[in-house]
Amino acid sequence: MSTTNGGTAEEVYPQLQVVAQYIKDFSFENPNAPQSMTSNEQPQISIQVNVGANPVTGSDTDIEVSVKLEGKAEIGAKLLFHFELDFAGIFRIRNIPQENMSAVVLIECPRLLFPFAREIIATTVRNGGFPPLLLEPIDFVALYRQKMAQMQPAEGTTAQ
Fold first, then answer.
1. pTM here?
2. Across the 160 residues of the chain, what is the mean pLDDT of every consecutive 10-residue run?
């Protein structure tokens, strides 16, 4: 292996490795079955997405990132189904500049987890007696920007 500045190439280049991925918490409710499955009306579907991250205890390089998806389908006031999924992964991150770390953790890691969470939801909704719910791709860059904007104090306000 080649060296750069006395270190191996592995030590110098940025690295993002998926160590593990798993369901932390999952709930699916089909409270009005079987009556809810006989409607020909198009349901109203709403989805909420949250991304979180925490360092793994005892490690300088491992971070747990979770994608929380909550959704429901309704026709009028009648609930067809409701789900909550907390899908997480352990990521080993090395040689990323500190100023780029939050973007990697809150954009790239969720982007790697999302296809697996999407499949879990689609399969579960199908197994609940409905057509599979195929979630649209999520713009994790926009979510990141929104989160960063919320963390910064509003412009024009001063502390009193």
1. 0.82
2. 50 87 97 82 93 92 96 93 97 91 94 97 95 92 89 58
